[in-house]
């Protein structure tokens, strides 16, 4: 597997996606029903717009709970664009759909993963990505990062190709810790992604350099 950490943006807001995509920072996008609600737009329309902006995988989530309807919804979502990644819940119906869709050549993202065993099942079903939810585990006083580490060990033990997509990222520290553990992908809200570049000493250092530069009276070029 290519050793490159990917950054996905976790939003269905076109303006946020465009801004980060223009910076060249985005390898893909994840959406979910709550993010579609927040966008205030129709799922097919907004997903089509996102797919036309971003080349990498764009996760669009099914809302059906049973296999037949998951497959029906997938037929609709997959037609939106080539780079659609079908997001399925970590249930037996979701795993069954994942296996069939993988065999048909679709990209899949098994979502709402909260245990290493769920991730193991996703890998056995051939998922392209599995999404462990770090923040929501932290919310209930469990350790989301510990889960990422467990899944990394298990996948490396057996050379599973499913990529670990660290989701429910809430802080810049989550991004750093996921990278240290070796998550393949982090999906991050736009505001948190933009925070990654920030440090008060960077701002202060720039201020000092610019003031000293002005005193030299020089210009470059
Ligand atoms: C992405 O795939 C997930 O749906 C998302 O990261 C969940 O984040 P939240 O727990 O902040 O809602």
Write structural notes for this entry.
With 221 residues, the protein is α/β, with parallel strands linked by helices. It has eleven helices and eight strands. It has helices at 14-22, 33-39, 43-53, 67-78, 92-103, 116-124, 134-139, 144-158, 172-181, 190-195, 200-216, and strands at residues 6-10, 28-30, 58-61, 84-89, 107-113, 129-132, 163-166, 185-188. An eight-stranded parallel barrel has the order 1-2-3-4-5-6-7-8, surrounded by six helices. α8 (144-158) runs parallel beside α9 (172-181). The longest helix has 17 residues, at 200-216. The protein is globular. It starts with 5 loop residues before the first strand and ends in a 5-residue tail after the last helix. Erythose-4-phosphate binds at residues 10, 30, 32, 111, 131, 133, 135-136, 167-168, 187.
Unreliable runs: none
In this structure, how is the largest beta sheet organized? 8 strands, parallel, barrel
- Small molecules in complex: erythose-4-phosphate
The dominant shape is globular
Q: List the strand order in the largest sheet.
A: 1-2-3-4-5-6-7-8
Considering DSSP H and I runs of 4 or more, what fraction of the residues is helical? 40-55%
Question: Quick check: average pLDDT?
Answer: 97
Distance between the termini: 44 Å
- Individual helix count: 11
What percent of residues are in strands? 15-25%
User: Would you report the number of β strands?
Assistant: 8
Please state the CA-atom Rg, rounded to the nearest Å.
Answer: 20 Å
Helix and strand composition category: alpha/beta
SSE order: EHEHHEHEHEHEHHEHEHH
């Amino acid at each position: 597997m290519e050793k490159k950490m990917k950054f996905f943006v976790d939003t269905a807001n076109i303006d946020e996606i465009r801004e980060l995509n223009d910076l060249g920072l985005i390898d893909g996008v994840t959406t979910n029903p709550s993010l579609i609600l927040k966008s205030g737009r129709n799922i097919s329309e907004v997903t089509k717009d996102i797919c036309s902006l971003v080349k990498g995988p764009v996760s669009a989530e099914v809302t059906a709970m049973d296999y037949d309807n998951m497959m029906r919804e997938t037929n609709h979502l997959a037609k939106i664009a080539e780079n659609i990644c079908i997001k399925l819940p970590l249930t037996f119906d979701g795993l069954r759909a994942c296996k069939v869709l993988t065999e048909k050549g679709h990209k899949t993202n098994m979502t709402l993963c909260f245990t290493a065993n769920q991730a193991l099942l996703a890998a056995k079903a051939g998922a392209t990505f599995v999404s462990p939810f770090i923040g929501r585990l932290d919310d209930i006083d469990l350790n989301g990062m510990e889960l990422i580490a467990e899944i990394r060990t298990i996948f490396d033990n057996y050379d599973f190709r499913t990529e670990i997509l660290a989701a429910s990222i809430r802080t810049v520290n989550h991004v750093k810790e996921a990278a240290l553990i070796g998550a393949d992908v982090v999906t991050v809200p736009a505001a948190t992604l933009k925070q990654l570049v920030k440090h008060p000493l960077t701002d202060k250092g720039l201020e000092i350099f610019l003031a000293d530069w002005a005193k030299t009276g020089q210009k470059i070029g």
